[in-house]
Amino acid sequence: MSKPSPAQQLPQTPLGEPTRVTRPKAIDTAFQLTLAGLVFGVIGTVVTTLADHEQVVLLVRSALTRTGQPFTEDDVVSLIGVFRVVGGLALAIGAGLIVLVAFKMRAGRNWARLLLTLFAVLSMVNFLADVSDTGAAPELIWTLGGVAFWAAAVIYLFRPESMSFFSESKKRR
């Protein structure tokens, strides 16, 4: 007697198709919190870095200084626009990848849950490093908001009903 296939072991609909795993509310909440944290992070980066002329000038000067080549103030001014465009593109690509990972998490992919957890931990470490460098600067409120949403999302991702969802989703693949 042969062992039944995994599809035969799963609960099935009257038509013989495996039933879908019901996504718990905690997963939807974690998804929404992840997107809210991402929005805070993107807005914060645009407001505190890309839209702040002095900050962009400091970053361009820092980049030029690291090259070890002499540069003039005209070089700095000419690179401000380039820096903003490249920074905006990098921000958009990073945000798009996080949204993709969030959708994969919502679909039950455990690797996506772990990757979002890693992003949240790195965001927390980055926030703490910024606070230790600059003190409680008002512009860090954007980062704090994003980190709070990410931390809450991680809590929802590791609740018992979420753990069951990811293990059941793995069985169905």
Largest sheet: none
Low-confidence stretches at least 5 residues in length (pLDDT < 50)? Answer: 4-11
Helix count, DSSP H or I runs of 4 or more residues = 7
Structural class: mainly alpha
Distance N terminus to C terminus?
24 Å
User: What is the residue-mean pLDDT, rounded to a whole number?
Assistant: 87
Kindly describe this structure.
It is a single chain. The protein has 173 residues and is mainly alpha-helical. The protein has one domain (27-164). It is built from seven helices and no strands.
Could you give a short description of this structure?
The protein is mainly α. Helix content is 77%, strand content 0%.
Any chance you could write out the topology, listing elements then pairs?
Layout: H1 6-9, H2 25-50, H3 53-67, H4 73-106, H5 110-134, H6 141-157, H7 160-172
